[in-house]
Structure formats: C-alpha cells, structure tokens
Amino acid sequence: MKKLILSMALIGATTLAFGQKKVVRSAEKNFKSGDLTAAMADIEAASADPETGSDPATYLLKAQIETKMFGSDSSNTASTVETGRTALATYNKALEMAGGNKEEGLGKDIYTEDMPGVPDNLRPYSIFTLKNISFDKALERYNAEDQEMAYEFFDLAGEIDLTDTTVHYNAGFIANELGKFEEAKKHFGYLLDVEEYNKLTVYYLLVQILSGEEKDPEAAYNIIMQGREDYPDDKVLAEYEIQLLLQLNKMDEAMASIQEALKNDPNNAGILLRSGYLKEQAGDMEGALADYKKSVEADPEFYDGNYYTGALLLDKSMKILNELSALPDDEWEAKSQSMGEEANVHYKEAVKYFEKALEIKPDNAEVMIILYQVHERLKNTEEVEKYNKMLIELKGPNWLDNI
C-alpha cells in the first residue's frame, strides 16, 4: 500500500513537472506567434513553479518576451523604458542563474550578436537585440526633439554595452545639453576606458563640465593632465592646462607650461596673453606689455589681447601721472611738461587698441567709457562728443552719473 501511495505521488510530481514544461512551451509558441500577453501569462506561471522557476532558460525566455514587448511599444515613453529595463534585469538574472559565463551555454545565447535589419523571426532576441531596439528608439526620440527620452533610451543601450562608443558619446552629449552632468560624466568616463577611441572631444567636454558647471578646477586639472598624457601635442589641452594652473594659483607651474607651449606654438594668441598676465602679476610690466602686443600681432581680432594691451598702457600713464603729482612743487614745475607728454604718448597708443576692441565688440559700454575718458584727457573734443553720443544711445542721457 505504501509503495502504491509512493508511486502515485511520483506520478503526480512527474505530471506536474510535465505540465509546467508544457506551459514553458506554450510561452515559447505564443512568443514566436506574437501573442505576447498570453506568452507573458504562461512564463509568469512557469517562473513561479519550483522546478521551471529554477531553470535559467525560463528567465531567458521571459527576457525575450519582455524584449519583444519593449520593441512593439511605439509610444516610446517612460513606461517603454521601464519595460526595457525590466527585460535587462531578467537577462542578468538568467545569466546569474546560469553561472555568469557569457562565452558558453546559456550565457552564449544571452549574448548572441544581433544584426539589425534581419527579419524578426531570425533575430536571436538576445541582450544585444534589446540594446539595438533601445538605440533605434533613442534615435526616433532625438529626431522628434524629445531629448529627455532620447537620453533614457541611449542610457539603457549603454548600460548593456559599456564599450559602444557611439551610444556613450550620444548619451553623454545629450546629458550634458540637458544639464545632467553626473550622467554626462558617467558616459564620458566609459569612453575614456576604450583604448582605441579618439578621446579629445571627451576631454574638452569633461573639462568644461568640471571647471565651468561644477566649479571644480582641481578635478578639471586632473582630467587635463590625463588628457595631456594621451595627447601631449594638443594645443587646446595645453591652453586649458595653463588656464587652470592660473585659476589654482600655481604660478610657477603655469609659467613652465606656458614656455613649453610657446615652443610648439609661438604664435598662439591665448598663450601669449597668459604669459603676459603672469609677467604682469610678477611685476614685469615691460615683459607683460611685449607679450600682450605679440598676442595682437598673432591675432589682430583677439579682443582680450587688444583690451589687455590698452589697459596696461593706461596703467603706465597713470603711474607716471601719480608719480608727478607726488613730487614737491619745485620738481613738479620742472617735470610736469615732460612727464605729462610721456603719459600722453601711452594714452595715444592705448587708443588704437581700445578702438580695435570696440570694433570687435561694438556694444561694449566699458570700452566706450574708457575711450571717452582718454580722449577727454587728450583734449580731443570731437572724439569725446562721438563717444558721448554713443553712450547716450546705449545707456541714456545720464550715463555719466552711473560710472
């Protein structure tokens, strides 16, 4: 009797297991035919069963059903992304249950390459199918000018493949545009790990995020030094390095970098300007003025070069006049004419640089005011009136009261 009861129990267990396997087969059939609601109901039942629910193949099929549901949802909204992320989690669970090896067994099936454009019945519905569908949805959203959702789909595709440079550049670029700077840094960071990838633009963007948006010059400098190792001859990174050294008040290192950069690029207006700035800070006014003038010679349309040159010439004039005013009366009488004329020479020279600066930025009120005051000093009545009219148009009739 006991043997009979045992036999009946075994038959029952076998029948139950067979029944659950039948449910898995039904899920597969419905998956292939496109009845995804029925397929999902079947696979949910199978995954809840102790036997079929412990089989990683059950979860691979579930992930494939979820992937097809993801692809068939043309709304491409946040809920679509959620379906895709659920599918990814299921693929990962199946891989973990199968031992985690992507190269053989079920792991190989999960990571089968997917070729976009092949008929649906020939697609492997692997994790790479999920990635490619997500990429296509990202492009669709981007072309529809829905950058928020384009980013989400690119981000999902990137989570599947950390080495796909197109996916991560697009994700990082859009995240940066959206102000998602942590997300942008994440994707750009993946690009820096791809050895053969041309990373220059990525370094530029990371420096801009770190130094500009996040106000972290130390982190930006570290990224620049990493970039300089990869691209030692890049002139833009060399300029960024100097700029950040100045920002970090590392003057000696900045000057050394400037001298090295000028060996390779002696006519770089930006670097010449920074060289002049360092010399000015160190008290070498003549050296600073020479470098500022060289920056304008290298690029006549360089606003900062023209402005800094004019400003330093004005500074020279003011020092002469301050020195004159500090003299005793008898010395002042003897030197006032010669020292005044010397100051005026620098004022006159400054005019051409400020006029060029105003030509480059024609609505710059600050430069107009400087030219008004210099011409007033030089008693150039017509020029004084010209700049007065310009300032009235720009700032109103009472502009003088507000300076």
Beta strand %: under 5%
Number of E strands: 0
Helical coverage, percent range: over 70%
Mean pLDDT: 91
Distance between the termini: 110 Å
The gyration radius over C-alpha positions equals 36 Å
> Biggest β-sheet: count, sense, barrel?
none
Describe the structure.
The chain is 77% helix and 0% strand. The chain has helices at residues 2-33, 36-48, 56-72, 78-97, 105-110, 127-143, 147-160, 165-178, 181-192, 200-213, 217-230, 235-247, 251-264, 269-281, 285-298, 303-325, 329-360, 365-377, 381-395. Helix 1 runs parallel beside helix 3, helix 11 runs antiparallel to helix 12 (235-247) and helix 12 runs parallel beside helix 14. It is elongated and about 115 Å long.
Secondary structure layout:
Blueprint: H1 2-33, H2 36-48, H3 56-72, H4 78-97, H5 105-110, H6 127-143, H7 147-160, H8 165-178, H9 181-192, H10 200-213, H11 217-230, H12 235-247, H13 251-264, H14 269-281, H15 285-298, H16 303-325, H17 329-360, H18 365-377, H19 381-395
Helix pairs in contact: 1-2, 1-3, 2-3, 3-4, 3-6, 4-7, 6-7, 7-8, 8-9, 9-10, 10-11, 10-12, 11-12, 12-13, 12-14, 13-14, 14-15, 15-16, 16-17, 17-18, 18-19
Which descriptors would you attach to this protein?
single chain; 403 residues; 19 helices
Task: Summarize the structure in short.
The protein is about 75% helix and about 0% strand.
